[in-house]
Each structure stands twice: as C-alpha cells, then as structure tokens.
Amino acid sequence: QLQLVEAGGGSVQPGGSLRLSCTTSGFTSDYYDIGWFRQAPGKEREGVSCVSTNGGRTYYADSVKGRFTISRDNAKNTVYLQMNSLKPEDTGIYYCAAERPATHPTIQSMCAPRPAEVGYDYWGQGTQVTVSS
Hints:
mainly beta
C-alpha cells in the first residue's frame, strides 16, 4: 500500500520542541518533493515547509522561519520537521504530502495555497501538535 505516515506529534508548552517525521511506505521518496502542511481549527490550511528531492532546496513559511528546520534522509525514506520555540499559534494537525517535482515550478509553489480540488500525489493522515501552557 502506498502511503505517508506521520509521527512525532504531541502536547508541549510554549517554547518547547518537537520533531515530526514523515515516512513513505510502498514507494521510494527519492523522486518526490515533500512538504509539511498544517490545519488549525477555523483557519485555512498552511504550507509550513517544503523540501526538494535531494534536500538542496527548501521553503519555509514566514511564520516558522528561524524556528523550524526541514530535512530528509532518503536512505530511510523519511522527512523530518524539527520544530523549536513552539508557540500556541503552531497548534494544529500537521500533514505531510509528496509530489513529483515536475508538478510544480518551484519548491515554494509546492507549499503555496491551491484549490481544494487540486491534490498532491500522496497525503498523510496527520499528527496533532498542541502548544499550550
């Protein structure tokens, strides 16, 4: 079965850290750009960070720059999102998605908002992140 599996979510206090992981199953991640997206209650889905197939190109939303770091280990078919200095506004369900590079012109465009009917090649089930004191 072809799927993405997220892990690493949880509850932390403001200022804390979490590391999310996104592992591909049934297919090799090497050929796909990978992105992290989050959905908070009552808010639009936001592209948090995206990374190219070899990790050479990355994009971060302004809201997470300097606090989050995306990386990938293709030998393990896994992409990580290290989240530091977490804030309550980082709360939400975090999803990872995979898409072939030819589908979008830049790594930033993979993370950009798109119509709901325009999906990704693969989409995970999500992991909850809660930042609260």
